[in-house]
Specification:
This protein is an alpha+beta fold and 185 residues long. It is 27% helix and 34% strand. It has a six-stranded antiparallel sheet. A four-stranded antiparallel sheet has the order 4-9-6-7, with no helix packed on it. β6 and β7 form a beta hairpin. α2 crosses α3 and α2 crosses α4. It is globular, with a radius of gyration of 16 Å.
Length: 185
């Protein structure tokens, strides 16, 4: 994780945990992560995976963007390209990049995803009531929500329940690029 982002995550997690009066053990148990992972987060060490950051943010009741926010929240918040954060790296070079987000709840996150041939991103269910919107810029995206499967083609958009386990998959030989919006209640 980049130094500034790691420092922001450390500062945010410490402050939010402290504001709730939770110990490291309490947050670890509630988020379903190890105490060691939280210690590393709060000391800006290591490289936590996206699932861990999402679980911690949801447990603390804030959007993911709140954890990685480098600066204070101004009236107008510009997210220059240099501040975009790649939070997922696929095994073949795909990426999941957090472009922007709002805080406090209800919150919205804006992502740009690129999946290489054969890559798949599995996501746990988010907070109850979460909705996601995808628009495919290029390629063919296979979207799985629970047991349902849908193919989303270039130019199409889809809205689905993010409060169920879901996956984004590229089952083709061409790259897939899509924009994802996550709306947390």
């Amino acid at each position: 994780m980049a130094d500034k982002v790691g420092d922001a995550v450390a500062r945010s997690v410490r402050a939010l945990r402290g504001a709730r009066g939770w110990s490291l053990d309490q947050l670890a148990a509630r988020a379903g992560v190890s105490k060691g992972v939280l210690v590393a987060l709060e000391q800006a060490r290591g490289n936590p995976n996206l699932g861990t950051l999402i679980r911690v943010a949801e447990t603390l009741g804030v959007p993911l963007t709140r954890l990685v926010q480098v600066e204070e929240d101004p009236a107008i918040q510009l997210f220059p390209a240099a501040r975009h954060v790649v939070l997922w790296h696929g095994p073949s070079g795909g990426t999941g990049t957090l472009l922007a987000g709002s805080d406090p709840r209800p919150s919205v996150e804006l992502w740009r995803w690129e999946l290489r041939a054969g890559e798949r991103r599995d996501s746990e269910a988010h907070t109850s009531g979460t909705r996601e919107i995808i628009t495919v810029e290029s390629g063919l995206l296979c979207l799985l929500v629970g047991e349902e499967r849908t193919e989303v083609t270039e130019g199409d958009a889809v809205v689905f329940r993010g409060d169920r386990p879901h996956s984004y998959a590229n089952e083709s030989t061409e790259d897939v690029r899509f924009i994802l919006t996550v709306m947390d209640p």
